[in-house]
Amino acid sequence: MRGLDAYNRNGLIHRHATQAEARAGIVAEWKAIERGGVDRDPVECGIETMTNAERIELNALARKAQDELGRLHGPEVILETLDGPTPYRAGDRVIIRETIRDAGLHNGSVGTVQRVQGSVLFVERRDGQTVPIDTRQFPGVQHGYAHTEYREQGSTRYAELHLVDQHVNQRSLVVGMTRHTHRYGMHYSAEAVGSFENLVQFGERSRDKVSLSDFAVRDLAAEQREAQKQAQLRAAIEREREATVERKAERERNADMAFYIERELRDRGVRTISRDDIFRIMPEVRKAASKSSTARKSRSWRRSCKRSSRPNSRAGCAVSYT
Which CATH number fits domain 2-207: 1.10.10, 2.60.40, 1.25.40, 3.40.50? Predict the structure, then answer.
C-alpha cells in the first residue's frame, strides 16, 4: 500500500520486538503528545487497537501515564463494570457503552470523572454538565483512553495513535489512518506482525477474505465463562435494581400510611405521638386494615349473591365468603 510506504518514509510507523514493547512505545508517544499540547492548550490524543483485550491493556497503561501527568486525583475506587473490577478516580476519561437516558448519555458518549461517591461516578459530559452514573444499575462504563477500531469509526481528534497486530486489514488501516487532524503514529511488533512487508500484505486484505489461519486460536471455554460471568453480573444488577424500586415503593407506602394515621390520631385528640411511635404501630394498623378490607369484600359478595338469587336474575350464587 502506497499510504503505508509514505507514512513509513516519514517516520510515522514504529516497529518493536515484542507486543509489550509496542504497547509501551505507543503509550509513551501518547503521553508526550498529551503533555505537550499546542501553545499550552490541551489536545486530545486517541489510541486505536484491534481487540478488546488490547484495549484493556492499553487503557491500564495510559491511565498510569494520565496519573503521572498529574491529572488523576482523589481516592481510587474499584467498581464492577462490563470490563470486570475497574479502578476509577477523579480525572479519569470514560466512555459509556450503553444508553442512560436520564443522564443524557448514549452508547459512545465520552466524559471525564469529576468525583466518585460509593458506586456512583459523577461524569462531566462534553457539554460541561455533570451527571451521576450508578454503576450498579449501569455497568457499561469503560476507561476512555484506548478504543477498538469499531468505536473509532466516525471520530476525529487532534492526534491518533494506532497499535497494529496480526488482525489488521484494509478497513482497520483506513479507519486508524484517517482519524487525526494533525498527528499520527503507528506501532507494531515483530512478535505479532513480523516485518514491514508482512504489515503491507496484511493491510491489503479485505475483511471478507481474512482466513481463520490469520487469527489466534480462540479460547471458547474462556469466552463462555466470561459470557456467564457477565450474565450473572447483569442478573445481580437487575435484582438489586428491582429491590431498590421495591424499597422505595415500601417507603412511600409507609409514609402515606403514617400521614393518614397521624391525621386520624389528631382528629381523635392525640397530640403527643411521634413518627417513631406511628411506625411501631403500623404493622397492627396494616393487619386491621387488611381485615377490614376482607370484611368489606365479604359484605359486597353477599349483597351480589342476594341480587342474583332474585327472580329474573341470570345466575345464582354458588359460593359465599364467611
Answer: 3.40.50
